[in-house]
Design a protein that fits this description.
By secondary structure, this protein is mainly alpha-helical. The protein contains 6 helices and 3 strands; from the N terminus they run ααβαβααβα. The N and C termini lie far apart (about 30 Å).
């Protein structure tokens, strides 16, 4: 989970962990890339805020996809996705979660994304 808002990270982490998910935290795009590199093949999903200082979520998403084309990334923002992300970013993401999100919205989107990520590729 990548966000520059510590309170949001804390609440979301607790919510996800209460449902059995293991959550890694990054406070910036730069930290997210480092964390992803440090855990090769062990991160099933990235939930990333688009509007962060530094490289920001949009740039980080594109770099994650360069690092691992199969990376599964959900983007989140308090603004419409068009405000922070061009078509390339929106296409690279599995989906969009509007902030502030509610507990059930977070859990549903994460579950759907993980299930989608596990579906076999069509032959």
């Amino acid at each position: 989970m990548v966000d520059d808002e510590p309170a949001l990270l804390t609440v979301a982490r607790r919510t996800l962990e209460s449902q059995g998910y293991r959550v890694l935290i990054a406070h910036s795009g730069e930290e997210a890339l480092e964390t992803y590199r440090d855990h090769p093949g062990r991160i099933d999903l990235v939930l990333m805020d688009l509007g962060m200082p530094g490289m920001g979520g949009a740039r980080c998403l594109l770099l994650l996809k360069e690092l691992d084309p199969g990376a599964k990334v959900l983007i989140a923002s308090g603004y419409a996705p068009d405000a922070y992300a061009g078509p390339e970013v929106r296409q690279a993401a599995l989906g969009f979660l509007a902030k502030p999100y509610r507990r059930n919205d977070l859990l549903q989107m994460v579950r759907q994304s993980l299930d989608l990520a596990r579906e076999p590729e069509p032959a």
